[in-house]
Amino acid sequence: MNEELIKEKNFSDSVLSSYRMSLDHKKLQNKMIDNNEHLLKRSKIMKRRIIKVHKNVLTEMIKILSKV
Q1: Tell me: the pLDDT tens digits for 47-61?
Q2: Domain of life of the organism in this record (predicted)?
């Protein structure tokens, strides 16, 4: 009888451990997705800034060249 209880407890512990590992894995996946979304957002912001600066530089160059 005692052996049966030990087997059941070990099985339960194993299932619980697997479930926890699965949850940890899912949390890690979600964190990676969040990080990727954040990087993509930052990348888009930087791209817009670069385009704006480039436009400003070109505008200034045109002003300078038009004076020549």
Answers
A1: 999 999 999 999 999
A2: Eukaryota
